[in-house]
Amino acid sequence: MSIISIQANLGIPKYKQIIASVENAIVDGHVKRGDKLPSINSIRNRFSLSRDTVLLAYNELKVRGIVQSIPGKGYYIKSENIDTKQKIFLLFDELNAFKEDLYNSFLKNLDKNVEVDIFFHHFNHGVFTKLIYDNMGDYNSYVIMPANLKGIDDVIEKLPSDKVFILDQFHEELSKYPTIYQNFEKDMFNGLTQGKELLEKYEKLILLFPEEKQPIGMRNGFTSFCNQYGYNGEVIDSLEGRNPKIGETYLIPDDRNLILIIKKIKEKRLILSKEIGIISYNDTLLKEIVEDGITTISTDFNKMGERLAQMIKNKERIKIENPNTLILRNSL
User: DSSP labels for 176-202?
Assistant: First the structure.
């Protein structure tokens, strides 16, 4: 007995009747995970349909995660959860505490029948490319955090442009896609300007900037601030061999090096916020507590996740600059 049922005068598009037939077969227990579905040609011939009509139905079931296609073999039931109406591909550069806040806020603000699969490219062009190619056609929306990877526009262009959303860093070559981004140059400059009075008691500002991971706008904003206000600024790519001194303020973009500089300061018996200062980038709950509070320049990652969910739900094709502020605490 065929599980597909189509009625000519029902007033429901034929492809939707195919989808409903598969859903009903799953609910009724006629098919289970791993079972093969009727071929596209068999459905086309039996009901005098176009191949595109059947393919449209199977592709919708595929992006919802209900069906999978195996080249040369056909279509099979992948999941019996028919409640999933939308699947989202989420590609981060790496996972850390503030990205976790973004992710949780994103999930919280999506509808309950939306499924999100998260992946990480770890700043590796090859991994990035493979993840995109391996998941083409399997999702309703693709959220991509390109970080500072170059030459990836050709890869992203393989995806349907109306399904792509860019997150966090703005790339000129990706400007045709809707984007929620941080303006790193402006945010760095404005954050340091907000803390200018406190910074005046220090003799030198030092930005830790490992170029392979951090956005160039961060360094540009730092340099602009130092030039405009006459601060003695230095950019370094590592804390290795660095001995913190009285009168320095360190601007640290990642949590691992934040802990390392705090350890070095303690070893030198320097007094934080009096003899030496720290500013971190990207706020987390931990930074509210460590050393009675670490000053941060940070975007609102909860807001970013919330706004991303709204953008996808409403199919907005816009660019949004996420808000950023200086959060003053004991370390400065």
Answer: TS-EEE--HHHHHHHHHHHTHHHHTT-
